[in-house]
Q: What sequence folds into this?
DNA sequence: ACCTCCCTGGCC
DNA sequence: GGCCAGGGAGGT
């Protein structure tokens, strides 16, 4: 149960009317379930409300640690003695409390199937991408065709699948889609087993404060001009919809 | 379906 | 001193 909740940054509470509202709606509530859909954390509460949290770019949760850390915007003290803190320098993340109606109007309601727990099959992904002319890289980041991939894992996935980031989504044939789906599985399996990707900025950390080790497994993200681990061709970088995109021009030829 | 915006630490 | 990184939301 949330014995006390402090929300100390206006922007962290932006999906409710105020930090005080987030705190008061959580106060005294017991957690009945914890789920994740895409990059959204859903925590069910005993009064039917749902606490929804998103790490954004630089957010992280600390459980029983980081007392007094800079950029702590949420502190929840549980009756068990556990203290959960949300630390988020760039404030792209948020903590919200929704009732059933509010959830329907939130970003959660627009998410495609979860890339890890509910990966789409070839037919379903094909339907979701049919007719789409936008680059597959942009569609992977969109979260509606499939949810859960950010910029790093989208680049890694496309490289493993041998698909150029600018390929129109609707141009992928069933073979491409099969490789894409399998690449998603492998990239996420590897990343999760490594505890996630902590970059040199150390923004992302596990809840116990440890760094994730997946940066060593990245083969294209952040490696422009370095030789491709598969074929030795220098990795290239281009910008797709304002996001950097790293790929091997040989392994991922545009067709 | 696209564009802009938000935000701060780190780096050039 | 200025730019870059990028998650989603909201507007055009």
A:
């Amino acid at each position: 149960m949330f014995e006390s909740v402090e929300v100390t940054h206006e922007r962290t509470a932006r999906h409710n009317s105020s930090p005080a509202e987030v705190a008061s709606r959580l106060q005294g509530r017991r957690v009945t379930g914890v789920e994740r859909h895409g990059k959204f954390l859903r925590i069910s509460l005993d009064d039917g409300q749902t606490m929804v949290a998103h790490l954004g770019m630089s957010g992280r949760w600390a459980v029983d640690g980081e007392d007094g850390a800079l950029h702590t915007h949420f502190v929840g003290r549980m009756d068990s003695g556990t203290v959960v803190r949300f630390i988020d320098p760039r404030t792209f993340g948020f903590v919200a409390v929704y009732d059933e109606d509010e959830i329907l109007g939130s970003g959660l309601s627009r998410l495609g199937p979860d890339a890890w727990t509910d990966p789409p099959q070839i037919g379903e992904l094909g339907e979701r991408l049919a007719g789409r002319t936008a680059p597959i890289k942009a569609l992977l980041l969109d979260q509606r065709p499939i949810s859960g991939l950010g910029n790093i894992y989208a680049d890694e996935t496309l490289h493993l699948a041998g698909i150029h980031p600018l390929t129109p989504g609707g141009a992928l044939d069933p073979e491409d889609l099969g490789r894409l789906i399998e690449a998603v599985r492998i990239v996420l399996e590897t990343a999760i087993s490594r505890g996630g990707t902590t970059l040199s900025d150390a923004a992302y950390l596990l809840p116990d404060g440890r760094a994730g080790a997946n940066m060593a497994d990245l083969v294209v993200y952040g490696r422009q001009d370095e030789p491709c681990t598969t074929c030795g061709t220098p990795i290239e970088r281009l910008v797709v919809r304002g996001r950097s995109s790293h790929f091997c021009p040989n392994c991922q030829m545009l067709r």
Q: What stands out?
A: Residues 11, 56-58, 71, 88-92, 133-134, 200-201, 203, 241-242 of chain A lie near DNA strand B (CB under 10 Å from a C1'). The mean pLDDT of chain A is 94. The domain at 2-110 of chain A is CATH 3.20.190.10 (N-terminal domain of MutM-like DNA repair proteins).
